[in-house]
Amino acid sequence: MAENNQKNKGEQQQDLNQLLKVRREKLANLQSEGRDPFQITKFDQTHHTDDVKSIYEAYEKETLKDYVEPELPPEPEEGADNETISAYRQAKKEAYNKKREILDANAPKVSIAGRMLFKRVMGKASFANIQDLKGRIQIYVSKDALGDESYGDFKKSDIGDIFGVKGYVFRTMTGEISIHAEEMTLLSKSLQILPEKYHGLTDTDARYRQRYVDLIMNEDSRAVFVKRSQIIREIRNFLAGRDFMEVETPMLVHNAGGAAARPFETHYNSLDEDVKLRISLELYLKRLIVGGLERVFEIGRVFRNEGVDTRHNPEFTLMELYQAYTDYEGMMELTESMFRYLAEQVCGTTTINYQGTEIDLGKPFARMTMTEAVKKYAGIDFDEVADDEAAKALAKEKHIEFEDFHKKGDILNLFFEEFVEENLIQPTFIMDHPIEISPLTKKKPEDPTKVERFELFINTWEMCNAYSELNDPIDQRERFAAQDANAAAGDEEAEHTDEDFLNALEIGMPPTGGIGYGIDRLTMLLTDSPAIRDVLLFPTLKQLDK
Q: Do 493 and 483 touch, CB atoms closer than 8 A?
């Protein structure tokens, strides 16, 4: 059996190699005839496929507004004799031709371009399907319209070739809007063979590694990335409506701060200095608030040297914004409004479905403090826990792992992750985090062990993280010192003192609200995608052995 399988694989590879050789021979023949498709530099594309269909439907409606359909004989019943069936078909054909004569008189002329994904040759007339960014459309190709040479070239073409097509639009007798080709130009010769059309590219790893093939073969995948672009565009529109300014800040930094994560490290040759790739956008954007740019945001890549799973990728797209003269309550209002706006604009409804779970973004989002949430789902009130040692004892009792340097607030957060997150399906703001896990956030005046911070959870995921930003430089220095101590104790994700940022705070930063959104996770939610790799065009993958 194994020998037969190996033999079949060998024969299949041999057949594939022969097919690839034939494609290259076809290209060589075109080049020898002075018709190299790769010499073509442009094509006048006037429409996309969905434009063509919309234009023709409107044209058809207007042109036939006074047209009276001829009365057809009754459709033959099953088992009718051949004469009855033939008469019905003839009457139907005559009615179609009469309508076609009217419509073809001034039919819209279009020029489209795209990849051929289907071809059926039938003597002097053939059909093909052309796919572009917006969809697919059928092309009717006839020898009479193209001429002998061009029609012969079409017959020799291969699935995957890219064509420019000029012609007029019509509707076939079966009702499909199509283009009657009057001119076809081969714009690019495909030298590889696309996956078989009925199965497409189904191997998940291959889809991620060869995203270009995935986009060709999988309409759903292409739709996800079109929608991702729309999401980012609508975020910009929403923030522009609130007078935010989009800015850009450095990716290569000496001190990678603003988040708890391990950075990637690299080296500036010209400066002979080691630098890190940023892990957040926060500290530079706050410097801009100090400089008087009252509302700023950035959408950009950040890099965290951590694990890969269905919700995490080492490089990902983050959006952070900062608004002077507001607090985390203002950030909650902005977040709730923006999520609702995005759902309406991108999905057409505030009630979305994610992997079979209905999520309502239309009603007010729930609010709970982290302490309240842990009390609700774990049955422990951390306001009643006396100190760090008592918190660690509770963790041991519940079999929750912790580090020696962890304090009561760290343990509270571990309990939250263990017992609470899995229950947060509908939009919920978790507020008032412990100070130990929030080194850049303002303390709550009535309880200095907690800070004015929230995270939005939807479908058990953290969707964003927001603060009333700490603007007291003395307090900030003390918290940086605590982070330095954690780093010395072995915490690889601890932040470090940033003297230039402290200098900016000493110049004076107004009260500010700030927030960070993971664009990839947001895209997963709004496109019903099960994994982060499904919304990244080129996700991080281990290199295949060469």
A: no
The answer to whether residues 295 and 431 belong to one domain is yes
Residue 134 shares a structural domain with residue 244: no
* 63: in domain: yes
> Which helix (H) or strand (E) covers residue 181, if one does?
strand 177-188
Beta strand pairing call for 177-188 and 252-253 = unpaired
**Distance, CA of 368 to CA of 537 (rounded, Å):** 36
pLDDT at 110 over 80: yes
Per residue in 230-274, pLDDT (tens digit) is 999 999 999 999 999 999 999 999 988 888 889 999 999 999 999
DSSP label of 182: E
Q: Are 494 and 439 in contact (CB under 8 A)?
A: no
Same domain, 184 and 297: no
Contact 382, 449 (CB under 8 A): no
Ordered DSSP codes for 499-523: HHHHHHHHH----EEEEEEEHHHHH
Which residues form the domain of 114?
36-188
Q: Which residue in this structure is represented by tokens 């999905």? A: 347
pTM of this prediction? 0.89
Q: How far apart are CA 299 and CA 15, in angstroms?
A: 48
Matching residue, tokens 């017992």: 419
Mention every residue, 6+ apart, whose C-beta is less than 8 A from residue 95. Answer: 69, 70, 72
510 contacts 325 by C-beta, under 8 angstroms: yes
**3-class DSSP assignment, residue 353:** strand
Q: Are residues 165 and 223 in the same domain?
A: no
Say if residue 322 is in the same domain as residue 255.
yes
Q: Which residues 6+ apart lie within 8 Å of 66 measured at CB?
A: none
> Following CA atoms 500, 503, 505, 509 in sequence, which dihedral angle do they give, to the nearest 10 degrees?
-100
Which two three-digit tokens encode residue 53?
């269909």
Residue 381, in any domain of the structure:
no
Q: What is the pLDDT of residues 333-373, one digit of tens each?
A: 999 999 999 999 999 999 999 999 999 999 999 999 999 99
